[in-house]
Amino acid sequence: MAGERRSKMMEETRGKLISAARHVFAEKGYAATSMDDLTAMVGLTRGALYHNFGDKRGLLLAVVNQIDGEMAAHAAAVGSRADNGWDALMAEGVAYIEMALKPEVQRIVLLDGPAVLGDPSQWPSQSNCLQATVRKVEDLMAQGIIKPIDAEAAARLLSGAALNAALWIAANDHPQDVLKKAVEAFRCLAEGMLAVRN
């Protein structure tokens, strides 16, 4: 019982810290966020932060993983409404790119994340998305919709194109203008993989 209670308390502590960090990182940015202010905000000590995440960078990684997971779930939900596998794959890519317009996604995942955590393609959350894309590409190849090319290479290029489009949007002073160009180019590049073009 005591172990179960302790585990629940640790989970609640992690949840509080992630929620507070998510709010403050989005508002102030990673560099301007004080760990003392953040922990005081939720009535915890810096020791709780270090125990659960190691350091501020570890907390950012947890926040990025949470948001990135939500982004993947949203993209999958959008894709699930498509009429076929190809349209679903395109809808997911476009949905991911469009999320770059959200201030929280821009600041935490697309600007601070790469600056602090390094190459997004190496993040655990991105690896999960990549594996899901590989499976979709393999399925589309099996149906003869995509040319017989290496599935991982195709998935990496599709994922990379969507991610780089989102990074471009987040870093631009006119993100709405860039979005239209990015989505058009993403679709055009992806269509080169089709076995028979429409």
From TrEMBL:
Domain HTH tetR-type: 11-71
PROSITE patterns attached to this UniProt entry: HTH_TETR_2
DNA-binding residues: 34-53
GO molecular function, one term: DNA binding
Organism for this UniProt entry: Azospirillum cavernae
Protein's name according to its UniProt entry: TetR/AcrR family transcriptional regulator
UniProt KW keywords: DNA-binding, Transcription, Transcription regulation
UniProt cross-references to InterPro entries, sorted A to Z: Homeodomain-like_sf (IPR009057), HTH_TetR (IPR001647), Rv0078-like_C (IPR049484)
